[in-house]
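haha ok so turns out i had the wrong file open the whole time. this is the CORRECT one, sorry everyone. sequence first:
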Amino acid sequence: MSAPRTMPLGPVMIDIAGTALDDDDRRRLLHPLTGGIILFTRNYASPEQLARLTADIHALRDPPLIIAVDHEGGRVQRFREGFTQIPPMRQLGAVWDENPERARHLAVEAGMVLAAELRACGVDLSFTPVLDVDHGASSVIGDRAFHRDPEVVAALAQKLMHGLRRAGMAAVGKHFPGHGHVRADSHLEVPVDERSLADLELSDLVPFRLLIGEGLGGIMPAHVIYPQVDAKPAGFSEIWLKEILRQRLGFSGVIFSDDLSMEGASVAGGIEARARAALAAGCDMVLVCNNPAAVDELYGCLDYTAPAASLARLIRMHGRGGARSLAGLRTDPGYQRAAAEVQAIGMRRGDLPLYG
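then structure:
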């Protein structure tokens, strides 16, 4: 294997088609604009295959590319066979309603198991936790949200973040400033939330504010328009990202855009316009998923040098530890106990109804 190519991390996170790298993947991953890769279910066959894939990706560049995945639990868990089944976060909220201390404990265990398994396979981070408050409106959020009470969302997400940290993974909260009040799915259309900033501060911003104070590593803004604050979706808004998130809330971590291929991003124009708008608004890294032609188009026209502050923030998103294989991890009694507890949540509670 050739020595890794030394180059700074770029501002774009992309994906690949299969379970191993091909020549087109390597070409895109070695492009100076690439800084990370997001994996999907199609990229997974087994823990051993995943570990080989992540090792090949990390060996391409120095510093290595950031390897991410959406692995929250419930219906958003990309790797299943060979991994612990993480329950939807709603089930932790249901435990809270019966026993808050037990729910806090289980949230730490869930975060630790989730991160330890991914780190053992070479994945740097998961885009979790979901910090959206469940207002009973959004089917795309639904049981991904911890609870309808923002204070409970904050408390459980904080504990999940502590579990992630214990296993060497940073937390990425989403979808700032809150996606749970709108019915529209930003994958398919452009949602609009008519609430005022004051209303959002009393509810949806509560979990973000608490976790920022606890050192939250990353935040992903929503492709949602809040017209009483700005006419642009939050992920393209300097008001939301620079004035409110950076200045008012004091966030110093990485801002990842949500997928620029989603319909909710279409208001910004074509792929180049979307990327430029997100980066100008304050995103450190933009995601372009499931559209390799758009990646090639973007790389053919975008001239962008990441600020030094963005580069420093991105480097902190690499995972720590994780030298053991998943098989080796399973010999750890602490992990075994935690994994059994986490799996038992879903088996005991089954599918819970949405709050309404």
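Residues 349-356 have pLDDT under 50 and may be disordered.
again sry for the mixup
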